[in-house]
């Protein structure tokens, strides 16, 4: 092991017998009256192993390991020798250099930043919808996601070009599956791109598309609510986590399903919402199964925000570097003030026909069953 102070925390600041290391959650100040802390940090340039460091600092090896353990707990150090053991080649390490620098935020002496990129390299993401979420497709390609499975049935239209920046004017009239595949291969020729030109009209047709994926992004927004229930059912059936996003008039919405004993699914969310606010039934009935082609408020900055949030959440789920809030949930944020408007955890709902029901079925229960079940007491 060759300990090194993480590059993202350099330079260190030395003043008044102290060493200060800048972190976003607050500067760390270490007392250093004799300059030994400064000397150790300067020697930790990644070229020396722990025995060599202890000898140069003239301290016991056990004492050095204790110091390193403390620095590791603060998240300040990593193992420079980890580069010898990564499966990433030199070209990949250069290509994803900024990714690797970002992953240094989460690396330790035992888990290197390279492992996070390696995880991306061996991950398959199913992206359902290549319209607004084509930005996410571009991000996934740039991040080095090993395999992207894209699905859409639409063609590129002039009105798409205000926010679907994977496409250009020359793509108008082309199938989005074809145009996106061509563009993504130009962004990153080292990953696998698979596309399906299919219009989804039930849950069953999703199963072969998402079966080999590790995680699903849902960009299918019509028919309203029903399409989300199709994706939810298919993902619960196959045990796949999924993330979806949407925009309101001046808000953005992020939702996620994470398989787990305590986590609910989208049908649980509907059931609990109806039980807590019975009047929600009127809104649900009004929009259920509807299409809103002419009232799309997809404004480029808002699309960029929601696709960024979705991709960031996906990265956390894939790499596992932030599992503090690994629960199924909905989050709504104002696109004007960025304040949180609402946040709801998807608790398991008693009687949910999807995650507590018979998964031998090919399709989710119909809306009338959801409405009837919502009248039962919530557990």
Number of domains: 2
Tell me the helix content: 25-40%
* The CATH C-level class name of the largest domain: Alpha Beta
Which architecture of the largest domain per CATH?
A: 3-Layer(aba) Sandwich
How big is the Rg? 25 Å
User: What is CATH's topology name of the largest domain?
Assistant: Rossmann fold
- CATH homologous superfamily heading of the largest domain: NAD(P)-binding Rossmann-like Domain
Q: What number is the mean pLDDT?
A: 94
Order of helices and strands: EEEEHHHEHHHEHEHEHEHEEHHHEEH
**Total strand count, please?**
13
Kindly name the structural category: alpha/beta
**H/I helix tally:** 14
**What's the N-to-C terminus distance?**
52 Å
Global outline: elongated
Structure description:
The protein has 379 residues and is α/β, with parallel strands linked by helices. It has 2 domains: 83 residues, Alpha-Beta Complex (Outer Surface Protein A, domain 3), CATH 3.90.930.60; 255 residues, Rossmann fold. 36% of the residues lie in helices and 17% in strands. The chain contains 14 helices and 13 strands. It has an 8-stranded mixed sheet, with helices on both faces. Strands 2-3-4 form a 3-stranded antiparallel sheet, with no helix packed on it. α2 packs across α3, α7 runs parallel beside α8 and α7 packs across α13. It is elongated and about 75 Å long. The mean pLDDT is 94.
